[in-house]
Amino acid sequence: MYYGIEAVAACWTITALQCFDGVTDTKFKQQKLPAWQPIMTAGTVLPVLFAVGVTFIPLGVALLVTSNNVSVLTVLCIVV
């Protein structure tokens, strides 16, 4: 539905609910919902840190062993 400039200008003086035929302003639509804020304590941070370490240390060791086992291949090119 198109609203002319007069209708838009009138919206400055009345609420949006009265102006745009049933459009409701909810907290979800206005993005004013409360945010999740985690509580960082030693009891929550340390287990996560250790889990990440247990996960990625073997991966790092495997990559290190693999990279140390790489051999260099030299190709001899004879131009006649």
Please tell me about this protein's structure.
The protein is mainly α. The chain has a domain of 30 residues. The chain is 46% helix and 0% strand. It has 3 helices and no strands.
Provide a compact summary of the structure.
This protein is mainly α. Helices cover 46% and strands 0% of the residues.
Assign an overall shape. Answer: elongated
Residues in helix, %: 40-55%
Annotation, overall tally of beta strands: 0
How much is the average pLDDT? 80
Layout: helices, strands, pairs:
Blueprint: H1 5-10, H2 16-19, H3 42-68
Sum up the structure in keywords:
80 residues; 46% helix; mainly alpha
